[in-house]
Amino acid sequence: MSQLLSASTVEASGRPILVTGGSGQLATALAEAGGNRIRRVGRPEFDFDRSDSVEHTFHETAPALVVNAAAYTAVDAAETNEAAAYRANRHGPALLARLCQQAEVPLIHVSTDYVFDGLKGAPYVETDSTAPPGVYGASKLAGEVAVLASCERAVVVRTSWVYAATGKNFVRTMLAAARETNRLRVVADQKGCPTAAVDLAAAIWAIVELIEAQGWQQRFRGVFHAAGAGWTTWHGLASAVFDEAVRHGSAKPEVLAITTADWPTPARRPPDSRLDCGLLAATFGVALPGWRDGLARTIDAIFAAA
Hints:
Elements lengths: L16 E4 L4 H10 L3 E4 L9 H11 L3 E4 L13 H22 L3 E6 L22 H16 L3 E6 L2 E2 L6 H9 L4 E5 L3 E2 L2 E2 H18 L7 E4 L6 E2 H13 L7 E5 L19 H7 L6 H15 L1
Parallel strand pairs: 1-2, 1-3, 3-4, 4-5, 5-10, 6-9, 7-12
Antiparallel strand pairs: 8-11
Helix pairs in contact: 1-6, 2-3, 3-4, 5-7, 7-9
C-alpha cells in the first residue's frame, strides 16, 4: 500500500504535499523527510498509464504542492519499450503539470543527468545544451519540456546516480555481488555525481519549505541541478562502497577497472554527466552534502537493517 495518509488526516498546519513514486527510493525518503504533510501515492491507485487515476488522486488530495518522483528508470529496457518510457516520463508528468496549473499549485518534477550526452568535459550547468544519448534520457527531457510548458509554477530538479539503503540501486547491487564473488569488474570511464536519496529528499523538502515560507516567486521557476557534491566514476563509487563496508566487518573484494567498451549495454550512457549545482544554492540556499558522506550514512543504514 503506497498511500501513507489521506487528505483528511493531514496535520492542521497545512494542506498535504502530494508525492508520486510509490515505494521508490526517493518517494520513500521524501515521505520520511516530510512527515505527516506527505501523501505518498503510487500504482495501482495512481498510475500514469491511467489518466483517470491521476486526476482522481489529485482532486481528492487537493494538495498545496506536488513532487513528482514517479518515472520509468530502466535505462536499457527503455530502448525497446519507448512507448512505456514516454508514458511515464513525458505524458504522465504533462497531465500532472496541467492539473497543478489549473489548481495554481507548484510542481517539483524530478529529472536526470542523462538528458546530456556527456561530451562537454566539465560539469554541466542548467543552460548547457541537452542531447540525450538514449530513449530514457530523451523521454525525461521531453517530460521537462512538457512540465515547464504546462505549469507556470514548475521547478525541475535534475539529479544523478541516486541510491538508497533500500530498493534497487548500484550501491546495493555492489554489496550483493561481493557476497557472490571476491573479484568484480566495474566501468571506470564514466564520471558522475552519486546522490543519496535521503540527501536529495532533504534538498527537495528545503525547497518546499522555502516556497511555502516566501510564497511562489518567479525566480523559483525553471531547471536546477541537485546532486551529491564532488564526483567519481562507477569504479570509484564501487571501491568506496567496499571501503565503507569494511567498517562493518565485510571483506573487500578486488575491484577491476574496465572501460565502457568492455561492458556493452543496449543504451549508451553519457561518459561525463557531472552536474554543477551552484544555481540551486544561489536560488534556494540549498547544497547537498559530499557524495562520500552520503554514501557512508547509507552503508551504515544498510548494515543496521541487516
